[in-house]
Amino acid sequence: xxxxxxxxxxxxxFWKLFAVQLLAAAALLxxxxxxxxxQTATSFAAYVEAHERQRxxxxxxxxxxxxAQTGDLALAAxxxxxLRRRALLPPPPADAERRRRRLRAPLTVLDADLxxxxxxxxxxxxxxxxxxxxxxxxxxxxxxxxxxxxxxxxEVGFWRRQTEALMRAAxxxxxxxxxxxxxxxxMVLRPxxxxxxxxxxxxxxxxxxxxxxxxxDEFGRLAxxxxxxxxxxxRYDRNQRQWLADVAxxxxxxxxxxxxxxxxxxxxxxxxxxxxxQSMQQEVQRLGGLIDDLHLLSLAESGGLPLAxxxxxxxxxxxxxxxxxxxxxxxxxxxxxAQLAEGELMASVDAQRIEQVLAxxxxxxxxxxxxxxxxxxxxxxxxxxVEVRVCDGGPGVPADALPRLFDxxxxxxxxxxRDGGGTGLGLAICxxxxxxxxxxxxxxxxxxxxxxxxxxxxxxxxxx
Length: 464
Known about the structure:
alpha+beta, five-stranded mixed beta sheet
């Protein structure tokens, strides 16, 4: 990053990808051409050697035939056309190199002791030799200079044609490699540009944007992940807006009551008596409770809720909550039934927070349920978890509203939504506390037509 947080300008990604692909293609093409050239050179040398060996064998056979008639190796050699008029001459001068390469390589005849008897002297190097055999006896050898020394015109033409073919392949292959490199760079950059544009749209809070995720490759999966992120941000933004509106509404009501009471007292409409002061105190307490609940919920959802864990008997905590709420429930017309598991149900929990969960569940019954059936609280242990269930007799909650009961300030539009003075955050706080303990909470329809809320916590020794 450059100074001021601005990105440093550099070579565009297109040209980087293009250069990398082109260099890779050029390296591959060069390697293939070099390998082909080496293979051609090897094949060419083998071809020339085989061709020359056949020529030497033919000359050796004719010399052997002549030797059978003359009995003299030198005379027999000079009678062969390739060696005729070629005595033991000195090597050609350096300026004759160009003319020498236009001819067939000169031949030399050696006796059995490798002494030259006809032809030109052999230059240093490993010469190609073929024996001269007559009646099974090796009379001598026909030799020629090493291959690099003499190259015939047809051999030079073959080598030149092979070299030109390789150069043409390179001239055609390199532009094709550049074209393919550009196509690959465009194929890579196009979805990246779309993703970049989509990210910029998210930064502008345009969360409704979606990318085409029909591709079956990694870019398609990346686009699908982007769409999932955009949908999550859209839901979060919508929930945050609703959350702010609900908080403003919840704060507005007690503040409006307080403002009205204070204005009435200040205007002399009402006296500043104990009744007015008590009313204002209740609204202040309601505001304080809402603010405390919001703070607690914020701590829990951010992972900053302090938990003083200790081994506790969940049955004992449930019995304590039953004892506290038995009288308020009976005064409201509810019959409370407790069905606890036998023995102890030990769990590592913050007892005060779990008591708060149980208090919120009973408070939810008092505010929203009808005393048409008993309220049952039960405990059980299963699969290393401790379960607590609170069920009432109704009215029920619509099935589509069950997953949202634990949302902050969510209201059910039914007869169950009657207001009993709560902040609307009780169940959301329950979920946050339970999840902070590593457990879960869920709501389902009760068989008797009411609502049943179940809490599951890890048993002691099975989790943190």
